[in-house]
Design a protein that fits this description.
single chain; six-stranded antiparallel β-sheet
């Protein structure tokens, strides 16, 4: 009997997995895409090899296509590295350093500062704005992230 009950308990989702499922369902209902992917980080100061992680990305798709000639893709990471021009302390560029004026850098910095503490990467492509995070939050956290992602899209970033 204990073997059967033990096997059933092993197959049950953990409390953390239940919270993640609730957050992901809420995100998808509110128009975000949730995707699990591998993310290659830039090399941090003092590291010889870049870190690669299995990550959860919450993405807000763009409804208007970006002009191929005017749009600049970018990617930032919560990491101590040399490529950090114009970003808040503790953040660095993976892609896009030196491509933006002070106004656009200010918008990116505002978004970074508005994100939850466990967000470790933000990416903007012609297709979507993505936030990579550890999913330590509530449904309101997901709503706030979506507002910030939409603000960036509206500003053309």
């Amino acid at each position: 009997m204990l073997a059967i009950v033990g096997s059933m308990m092993w197959m049950m989702p953990s409390p953390r997995q239940r919270v993640q499922a609730i957050l992901r369902q809420h995100a998808m209902r509110s128009g975000l895409q949730v995707q699990i992917s591998n993310l290659l980080f830039p090399r941090a100061i003092g590291e010889h090899v870049a870190d690669e992680r299995h990550c959860t990305a919450y993405r807000l798709g763009r409804t208007k296509s970006c002009s191929a000639s005017g749009y600049i893709p970018w990617h930032v990471f919560r990491l101590q590295a040399h490529a950090n021009t114009g970003l808040p302390a503790g953040w660095c560029w993976g892609k896009g350093e030196g491509d933006f004026d002070a106004d656009k850098l200010g918008l990116i910095a505002q978004m970074i500062n508005a994100m939850p503490a466990d967000v470790y990467s933000i990416e903007s492509t012609p297709v979507a704005v993505s936030v990579y995070w550890n999913e330590n939050g509530k449904q309101e956290t997901v709503d706030q992230m979506k507002i910030e992602m939409q603000r960036l899209i509206d500003c053309g970033l």
